[in-house]
Structures are given as structure tokens and as C-alpha cells.
Design brief:
The structure is a single chain. By secondary structure, the protein is an alpha+beta fold. The protein folds into 2 domains: 70 residues, no CATH class; 159 residues. 25% of the residues lie in helices and 35% in strands. It contains 3 helices and 14 strands. A hairpin with a 3-residue loop joins strand 5 and strand 6. Helix 1 packs antiparallel against helix 2, helix 1 crosses helix 3 and helix 2 packs antiparallel against helix 3. The two termini are 35 Å apart. The structure holds calcium ion (CA) (2 copies). One calcium ion (CA) binds next to strand 10.
């Protein structure tokens, strides 16, 4: 099967699944759509997804900030394939930020920032990749993701990712990455209201993720057939 055919089938499956009403089905379809987007993303990207059901309908602002900690312009972060079943609104990509819809932010001038407004649905997801340069001076550059009220720029969610006393402070982050060799994506273990991470998937290769997404939908189709047979 050609790559085009795989993606075409995937789109068809995603559309069919999206028409169904249960929460699981919606999330499954969303996952496959995001997988399709990932297939075109950078090889080292990681799929990150958050469940925002507790805040569905709320106006929000995603604030991706890359703060310089080592006094060297040496790192960049790419945010691609931003996806939600809510509604994406305006984007501000002016502060050491370029591109769109795949955005690159750098630590040029000490801060790079991408702001994406949206009306929250049951989830949002994106594809994240980053460099991990750190010469050992100062502190590693830090990427943080905040979920803000677009009117006040106050956080919509209290999380336990609070680093107020660090050289590069942040508070109530949904995600933090300290850019140094071996960097790991840090997620909160507690959020209020509840905004759990619905999945972080290091991308082993687009083919593997597409296969996983199709397998999920295939399982759903089998379950639907069984339920239809039982209902008869
Ligand atoms: Ca730096
Ligand atoms: Ca907090």
C-alpha cells in the first residue's frame, strides 16, 4: 500500500469515527488525526496531548516560552501540528518565533514565545521537538507551556510544576523541558482543574504510529460490529 493510500484510508477512518458520539471514539479519532499530522513531522518529534474536558468551552491561550538560561543563543523548539476538537483562534508568533503552522521559537534575545488562542474542546495536542545544547554555564534553557486566560494572562490551571526559585523560574506549567543533553519532558503529577496528559509518544517513526492509530480504529470497528450483532 502506498503512503498516500495509507494516509487516505486513515483520513476516511478518522472521519467515520468522528461522527460517533462517545468520548472514547472522539479521542480515538483525534489520536489518528494527530498521528497523520505526525507522519509529516520531524523525525525526533514527540506527540504531546492534554485532556481539557474539564475546561471545555473556555477561552484559553497556550503560552510556549523558551527562556535562555546559559547566556548563549544556542537552542530552538519546534511546535507543529497543533490540533484540537475545540476552535483554534489567533496566533502571536513575533518574539523570536517564526513559521506557521509549524512554529520555531529560539532563545535569541533571551526569550522566544509562541501564543496560540483557542476555545478549548476535549483535548489539544501538538508535535514537539527541541535542541538540547548546554555548555555548562548558568542554567539550561527552559521551555515551558502554560494554559492561560487570554483576557488576564493568569493561569487557568494550578499545577505542581512550580519552579519559582530556579534561575529560570516558571509556575503552574503543563509541560517543562530543560534543554540539555538527555532532556526529558516533565509533566505535572497534579492539576486543578484536572488537565491530564492524554499521552506522550516519542516518535519511533511515522509508520509505527500510523500502524498504531489504524490498529486502534480497527479495534473500534470490530467492537462496533459486535455491538451491532448483539443488538439484533
Ligand atoms: Ca541558550
Ligand atoms: Ca502551582
Amino acid at each position: 500500500m502506498t503512503r498516500h493510500a495509507v494516509l487516505s484510508n486513515e483520513s476516511t477512518f478518522a472521519r467515520l469515527a468522528a461522527r460517533r458520539s462517545s468520548s472514547w471514539q472522539k479521542r480515538c479519532a483525534a489520536f489518528v488525526i494527530t498521528v497523520a499530522a505526525c507522519a509529516a513531522g520531524p523525525a525526533a518529534a514527540t506527540l504531546v496531548s492534554f485532556d481539557t474536558s474539564s475546561l471545555a468551552g473556555s477561552a484559553a491561550r497556550l503560552d510556549f516560552s523558551l527562556l535562555d538560561g546559559d547566556f548563549t543563543e544556542n537552542n530552538s523548539v519546534t511546535v507543529a501540528s497543533l490540533s484540537t476538537d475545540g476552535t483554534l483562534g489567533g496566533v502571536d508568533c513575533t518574539l523570536s518565533c517564526s513559521g506557521g503552522p509549524s512554529y520555531a521559537i529560539t532563545d535569541t534575545g533571551g526569550l522566544g514565545q509562541l501564543l496560540q488562542d483557542l476555545i478549548l474542546g476535549s483535548y489539544f495536542s501538538f508535535d514537539l521537538s527541541f535542541t538540547t545544547n548546554y555548555p555548562g554555564n548558568g542554567a539550561p534553557d527552559r521551555l515551558s507551556l502554560l494554559l492561560l486566560d487570554p483576557l488576564t494572562n493568569f493561569t487557568l490551571v494550578d499545577t505542581d510544576l512550580d519552579f519559582l526559585n530556579d534561575p529560570v523560574p516558571t509556575q503552574d506549567a503543563l509541560l517543562v523541558v530543560d534543554l540539555a543533553p538527555g532532556a526529558q519532558i516533565q509533566l505535572p503529577t497534579a492539576t486543578d482543574p484536572d488537565v491530564p496528559s492524554a499521552g506522550i509518544i516519542p516518535e519511533p517513526g511515522a509508520g509505527g504510529l500510523v500502524a498504531l492509530g489504524l490498529a486502534l480504529l480497527s479495534g473500534q470497528r470490530i467492537r462496533s460490529r459486535r455491538q451491532s450483532a448483539q443488538a439484533r
